Amino acid sequence: MSARYAYLGPAGTFTEAALRQVAAPDEATYLPQVDVVAAIEAVRTGSADYAVVAIENSVEGGVTAVLDALAVGDPLVVLREMLVPVTFTLAARPGTALADVRRISAHPHAWAQCRHWLADHLPGVVHVPATSNTAPAALLAGERTDLGFDAALVPPPAVQHYGLAVVAEHVSDNESAVTRFVLVGRPGRLPEPTGADKTTLVVHLPSNQAGALLEMLEQFSTRGVNLSRIESRPIGDSLGRYSFSIDAEGHLADERMAEALMGLHRVCPHVRFLGSYPRVDAPYGDVRPGTSDADFRDARAWVTALREASAT
Amino acid sequence: MSARYAYLGPAGTFTEAALRQVAAPDEATYLPQVDVVAAIEAVRTGSADYAVVAIENSVEGGVTAVLDALAVGDPLVVLREMLVPVTFTLAARPGTALADVRRISAHPHAWAQCRHWLADHLPGVVHVPATSNTAPAALLAGERTDLGFDAALVPPPAVQHYGLAVVAEHVSDNESAVTRFVLVGRPGRLPEPTGADKTTLVVHLPSNQAGALLEMLEQFSTRGVNLSRIESRPIGDSLGRYSFSIDAEGHLADERMAEALMGLHRVCPHVRFLGSYPRVDAPYGDVRPGTSDADFRDARAWVTALREASAT
Amino acid sequence: MSARYAYLGPAGTFTEAALRQVAAPDEATYLPQVDVVAAIEAVRTGSADYAVVAIENSVEGGVTAVLDALAVGDPLVVLREMLVPVTFTLAARPGTALADVRRISAHPHAWAQCRHWLADHLPGVVHVPATSNTAPAALLAGERTDLGFDAALVPPPAVQHYGLAVVAEHVSDNESAVTRFVLVGRPGRLPEPTGADKTTLVVHLPSNQAGALLEMLEQFSTRGVNLSRIESRPIGDSLGRYSFSIDAEGHLADERMAEALMGLHRVCPHVRFLGSYPRVDAPYGDVRPGTSDADFRDARAWVTALREASAT
Amino acid sequence: MSARYAYLGPAGTFTEAALRQVAAPDEATYLPQVDVVAAIEAVRTGSADYAVVAIENSVEGGVTAVLDALAVGDPLVVLREMLVPVTFTLAARPGTALADVRRISAHPHAWAQCRHWLADHLPGVVHVPATSNTAPAALLAGERTDLGFDAALVPPPAVQHYGLAVVAEHVSDNESAVTRFVLVGRPGRLPEPTGADKTTLVVHLPSNQAGALLEMLEQFSTRGVNLSRIESRPIGDSLGRYSFSIDAEGHLADERMAEALMGLHRVCPHVRFLGSYPRVDAPYGDVRPGTSDADFRDARAWVTALREASAT
């Protein structure tokens, strides 16, 4: 049986583009879901093997919901991350020229991201709000003639899927925008360390004192572990207590990460490990002097020798 | 002319409930918008005086978009924050009893938040996904009889607005869930300090080194300023650089906050001040010894005396 | 053969009082030395088994010399610490009454420590400087009659040793003053941990940046290890580089101390271990939550389980 | 009347060499004292205008006593620092050749510093301990013929003063050794800032917790102030409380130093300012970005503008 992947559907979403990086449609079972929480729950209940969900900067939303859904409930781990460029295509029914476009259907987020291009190339064009990035594509693909709009801003994968014609490509104002997605599965063998990995954690602090936050972060910095993402989330059960969702550079198999996690476990009331996996966006910076695996081994050997000298 | 408030509409949203805490509908002009970015832009362009937008933990989404929209563009400031309980009401057309309900329309976020209640009280009930929290209310208020559902999970304000009947109240699994909203306006006179205030900032770091983050946070802790929220956001222009959205306890008028901001201004490549305003959710903890305004004045007087002794 | 102890002589010094806490004169060989460096070198060359030297706050001086002598050369370790109250006795030849005393011989440090008592009880008395605390005792014990003074401020042990008479006891202005001495030997079995121990270290920093010092100290604080003494010493070979002599609370056998030493070994160019031994002056404060041996073991077990889960 | 300088005498000491850097003997009144405490007290009582005392690494001892004497009592300030090379000359009566030397008188510290040179050039030579660096010079200058030694290790200034002959110069093993001395006076106009200054402080901590020490040090590092010396000293009145003697880079007139002192004043139970004065040993490292006076002024102007905007 091919692996089953739950994701935010329908076809043509940026999330689907992320999923295609993991498994081609003909080699896997795609299970579109109505939202990210449903995608995650599908893995927990066993109706899917994996979920693909946005975890940072998504134009489809749901990132906060993803973080919260992973933070509680049955343990899941991140196995891989995928970047998807967030660009939009101005699409229409075949035969539509740019000069014909008077009214554009677009999700408000999409509209906002193309605002300057539209002002430059289609001054005066009217925005017809859509409820998702793919809804106007589906309408254009249908039979209705009273759509009330001539074209739509859609994710590039939706163009082919819905058989649309391209009016203009790369109409986003910031062509380098990307959304980060992750592949989530049930705990098991972690991906092998690659030398450029990322570890995702949820950590609770006992209070919202700045001192408590610094003490927690020192558990990383003392071992030379950099962070690439940190977000505080209020803990529902009590005012003034915070949970932190953290991406740290390195793999559980790295000595510095293992010692940092030990430190967090000792001083924080709750730590959840959400996986170590290859990072896709950038190679590491250099490992800080004194924090390589060899440095840790040397240090341990030195202390062991001191202790054994004391036992002879 | 009454003040004009842009907000995420339509009527009946949680955002509208937040707006009602600021100004009653008969004393103000409510300007519903298709999304939070549009609400914020309405203030920048002058088509509204204020915007009400979610800033933390919203079930209506858009929080990330709010943070990003405030972080760049013409300066705006937060003037006030409002908490709205996020509870749901199971509503239907008049005459519908709980036992009659077979199919429920609900936004997936709403469905997720009521999952346990529904499993207990309506085992086997079918979920009909909705595109927003108010869309099914509007449908129930209409004439159509082929809705495909018997009831809907809606925000409490939507019940009255759409003339619906309550089937069951307080059906959320976590009755203490709240979303935090803020009132945003153009810069001008800040709200007076109340002794329990909050200051919102956007701060850029030069790198993603853990050391750089600690150095930035020490600018707060050294002056005894606690944080109540911190979120990293990637800066679009470059890999590995981060922006932090921060809520800190205290007011710009407090000495410790002013000195912390001076410190941030000195060591960070970019700091944006997004307002000081009364916090609504909790009183302060005690001010840490040595960080009251009087302590700062005493310290300054001591140094001034040392310097002047040297000048006599 | 009884153990041989090198110490700052002659008989009657405070150092000898410290040595008596370790071994009675009839069970050990006392080897008085002209100074603390000679005492330490006697152990290195094998002409003594142990040395007793002052390490903090001595009125006989030499503390800096002790720290420097232990920091370089063949490794030695501290095995025990001893506190000696630094009080003075006003002593004279038998038959001398307080009212007879016109001129007092005293080492300048001794004089300084008794200044107020003397002003109160012997106004106008003349100070005859002595070159050590025991030199005037030896003179009083001799035959000469032209000493030029009537009495002397001497350590209490010198009174009996030199057969003097007590004119007044406890004449120091600060009766709680103590000097800390240590017993030094060649490396071997460390003293057993007692639950209230101290570890002495020499640590070099790569630069005199405040950041470098903080980074070094965080290696302790991150593991909940408190310091009870820290002294910077310039490193002779280069301007602006510093060595730190440190006493930390805890024993090498404690997990938190072992991990802190590993951290120092990784990030500092040089770390010398100078022993773990029972502290004599005060019981511990409570161990900080999360830093007991059990906490470290639990944390290690958790990380090991995470890693092994990844290997199944 | 020429200025009166108290110092550790007699003539020929390293301290006198330090004093000569400040004022030539024919332009000032030299007041030799029996020890450093007496020198400092002479300024407090008004019998001297200034004192010259060793403050770091002295071979004549007394450094701890200096730190303690400045830390309490009537306020004094450091006005200047002077470095004196600590080299020794092997001196004798005229006509003595190196080959004639069988027995050398030397203070034990001096002997220790010349140990290797002596082993190389005078193997088997006998050490005759002296009580100070100048005592054997005085004996050689006298009439006695039964000295019991042929030569002495003395500070270079003592050679000429006592009319001795040089047998060998630069006999110290470490020719770059220096001792740091300071000129101490009563509070008044501080020396002008030079761009390479030093500020000396005494700071008490409320406890010996590592966290308390870090918090204190962050008051410096947060403002980019480096330390060049730190020494903990037990506070006599209570176990486990510490005083720190600190040299920090910069002048009270520097903004970063002023703000750091304000921070210390706020969070520490006691801070004593012991002067800002030109440092003699090394130019500054570069000022850390963001911590120049201009950076502080810009930051203050920015906060002031934010506050005033709020008042318009």
Overview of this structure, please?
- 4 copies of one chain form a homotetramer.
- In chain A, β12 and β13 form a beta hairpin.
- The first copy, chain A, is of the alpha/beta class and 312 residues long.
- Chain A folds into 3 domains: 1-86 and 177-186, Periplasmic binding protein-like II (D-Maltodextrin-Binding Protein, domain 2, 3-Layer(aba) Sandwich); 89-168, D-Maltodextrin-Binding Protein, domain 2, CATH 3.40.190; 189-312, Alpha-Beta Plaits (2-Layer Sandwich), CATH 3.30.70.
- Chain A has helices spanning 14-22, 36-45, 63-71, 108-113, 115-121, 135-141, 156-161, 210-221, 255-267, 293-309, and strands at residues 4-8, 29-33, 50-56, 77-85, 89-92, 103-106, 126-129, 151-154, 165-168, 178-185, 197-204, 227-234, 242-249, 270-278.
- In chain A, the strands form 3 sheets. A 5-stranded mixed sheet of chain A has the order 2-1-3-10-4, with helices on both faces. A 5-stranded mixed sheet of chain A has the order 7-6-8-5-9. In chain A, strands 12-13-11-14 form a 4-stranded antiparallel sheet, with helices on both faces.
- The mean pLDDT of chain A is 88.
- The first copy, chain A, is built from 10 helices and 14 strands.
- Chains in contact: A-B, A-C, B-D, C-D.
- At the A-B interface, α3, α4, α8 and β12 of A face α3, α4, α8 and β12 of B.
